[in-house]
Design brief:
Ferritin; 5 helices; globular; about 140 residues
Length: about 140
Amino acid sequence: MIGIGAPTLLDFYNMLLEAERAGVLVLDELVRQVEDYQLKTLLKKFLRDEGVNCRILMTLIHDLGAKPTNKTGAFVDKVHALNNLEDKVQLLIRGQEWVARKIREFHYQLPAGSSYFFLKAIELQHEENVDTLKKYFN
């Protein structure tokens, strides 16, 4: 059920775009910090996917006849506040979970067709990233 003050489709797309931009910045920094080859390879894949997601979201926003926000999510500052790599990766996991959860919460408002499938793909991608990182660190 849509409540008072529920985000519009445009607001939702822009919120996700800001989060994906933050993911790009964080992952780019982590890739440069990580020495472990296997983890670096995973993070590079995630970085590429986050960049593609930004492009998809900007296209969906343009399809609405709107201009994408230029903002980047606050996630970057939260990661910068942490001192060690493991804490940063744990926060990355929570950030990936957040994106997937937001899409699940909003899915009933997504238009049918390609927009719906693009967002479901982003949701699944983030869920897979979480599972992969959790397995890697356990």
